[in-house]
Write a structure and sequence with these properties.
The structure is a single chain. This protein is globular. A hairpin with a 4-residue loop joins strand 3 and strand 4. It has 83 residues and is mainly beta.
Length: 83
């Protein structure tokens, strides 16, 4: 993430099952191609063809919890968002 956790949550508020948004070093907001917003605080990142990472940003303390998952546990419908 190139933005602070607060900025990241703000630009992704209300986003569900769409590619997430990030802010680049110039402050421009852009839509990612490797990060899916599962809901306002939970995201799925494609690490490789076989591995993904689910991470949750706590909106209170802005801590991040992440879990690596094998692509085999994800539905083809979810993986299709990254194509």
């Amino acid at each position: 993430m190139d933005a602070t956790p607060e900025q990241f949550l703000k630009i992704n508020e209300g986003r569900r099952m769409v590619m997430a948004k990030k802010i680049n070093d110039n402050g421009e907001v852009y839509t990612t191609d490797d990060l899916l917003a599962l809901d306002s605080y939970t995201f799925l990142k494609k690490k490789s063809v076989t591995h993904y990472e689910i991470f949750h940003v706590d909106p209170i303390n802005l801590g991040i919890k992440n879990i690596e998952v094998n692509a085999a546990v994800l539905s083809e419908e979810v993986k299709a968002y990254f194509k």
